[in-house]
Design a protein that fits this description.
globular, binds iron/sulfur cluster
Length: 65
């Protein structure tokens, strides 16, 4: 995000990373993680009508880094 901000972008959107891990920003700021393990599969988008916004990947298959 920092390079994008330095290039003139006024904000960076963090959506699915926080759907995947609601503590994503806190863990990123603390240095615990350097990136999200969201694989951008978008299956959470398809599941929103059925159960709200949450990552469905752990219900289907584990995500590995
Ligand atoms: S369902 Fe896929 S896109 Fe959505 S948060 Fe989980 S890993 Fe990311």
């Amino acid at each position: 995000m920092e390079p994008a901000m330095n290039d003139g972008f006024e904000f960076a959107e963090i959506g699915r990373a926080t759907v995947r891990d609601p503590d994503f920003v806190k863990r990123l700021q603390s240095g615990e993680i350097a990136e999200s393990d969201c694989d951008h599969c978008r299956r959470c988008i398809a599941a929103m009508d059925a159960g709200g916004a949450h990552c469905v990947c752990d219900e289907m298959e584990p995500i590995t880094k």
